[in-house]
Automatic annotation (TrEMBL):
PROSITE patterns: PNPLA (PS51635). Residues 1-129 form the PNPLA domain. The lineage of its organism: Eukaryota, Viridiplantae, Streptophyta, Embryophyta, Tracheophyta. A motif (DGA/G) lies at residues 116-118. This is Patatin. The keyword rRNA-binding does not apply. GO terms for biological process: lipid catabolic process. It comes from Nelumbo nucifera (Sacred lotus).
């Protein structure tokens, strides 16, 4: 039997708290050098497909959204992919904010002061829908075959990266006594950040799911998420080989699980009876995507 020393445990908690309060957990130097080494001078306009990447500007206190299409027409938003990736992964308390500048041929400069886009769009599904809807409204040549509000032509696959199991360890009685410190850091957890992240992601899922149901195209929206992660698997920064292999195993098991949808009353994902597994849903989605691609090619040739 191993007995813990209460005094030592208390000191450990104080040390961890001091680290959280004194600055980000990591200095970010390695992830920056690795990202810059992999992406080099490649810019957003050079992506092989159209992408949308959310970030948040702490100086302007508003989201900054990077898209391939805008990068091709606005040099001041055609940033290096490495800068964008470093910014959108700069999770508060874990990694430092990222500053960089872009220039255009006229000598104009734009400055960015960015952190993780998840603080504004932890689930970026609506960003994608909004972006495509805007292209349809301005008669973008790539979307002339789609009419506004024609959800039958939309295929949305929303892949979650996993969430911690709902332990329901907090209550109004407990939280009512919390001050700034407890809301920010509570025995290793970050209740305030967790609340913002969960609510942001779930509201988007609820909105998108409802929208497709109203437009009679509910099967064109597929959300796959595992909200039962525990221990190291639920952490955002445990990159040991053992944990990474465990995450691979969890992902493969998720494919075999029945399709599910979040219950608005409990906040938990519940099985959709008769809808098959996530793997079967992905195969169906791939077929639909292939069919739509062929139809688009035929329309373009005619």
């Amino acid at each position: 039997m191993i007995l813990s020393n209460p005094r030592t445990a208390g000191i450990d908690r104080i040390v961890k708290l001091c680290r959280v309060l004194s600055g980000p957990k990591y200095d970010g130097k390695y992830i920056r050098s690795l990202t810059e080494g992999l992406l080099g001078k490649t810019t957003l306009s050079q992506t092989l497909t159209n992408v949308i990447i959310p970030t948040f500007d702490v100086k302007l206190l508003q989201p900054t959204i990077f898209t391939t299409k805008e990068a091709k027409t606005n040099a001041l938003k055609n940033s290096r992919l490495s800068d964008i990736c470093i910014s959108t992964s700069a999770a508060p308390t874990y990694l430092p904010a990222h500053h960089f500048e872009t220039n255009d041929s006229k000598g104009n400069t734009r400055s960015f002061n960015l952190i993780d886009g998840g603080v504004a769009a932890n689930n970026p599904t609506l960003l994608a829908l909004t972006h495509i809807s805007k292209d349809i409204l301005i008669n973008d040549p790539d979307f002339l075959h789609i009419k506004p509000m024609d959800a039958s032509k939309f295929l949305v696959l929303s892949l979650g990266t996993g969430a911690a199991n709902h332990e329901e360890k907090y209550s109004a009685e407990i939280a009512s006594n919390w001050g700034l410190l407890e809301w920010t850091y509570n025995d290793g957890a970050t209740p305030l950040i967790d609340a913002f992240m969960h609510s942001s992601s779930d509201v988007v899922d609820i909105h998108a799911s409802t929208l497709f149901q109203v437009l009679h195209a509910q099967k064109n929206y597929l959300r796959i998420q595992d909200d039962t992660l525990t221990g190291a698997a639920s952490s955002v920064d445990i990159a040991t080989e053992e944990n990474l292999q465990n995450l691979v195993r969890i992902g493969k098991e998720l494919l075999k699980k029945p399709m599910s949808m979040v219950n608005l009353e409990t906040g938990k994902f519940e099985q959709l009876h008769g809808e098959g597994t996530n793997e079967e849903a992905l195969i169906r989605f791939a077929r639909l995507l292939s069919q739509q691609r062929r139809l688009k090619q035929v329309e373009a040739e005619s």
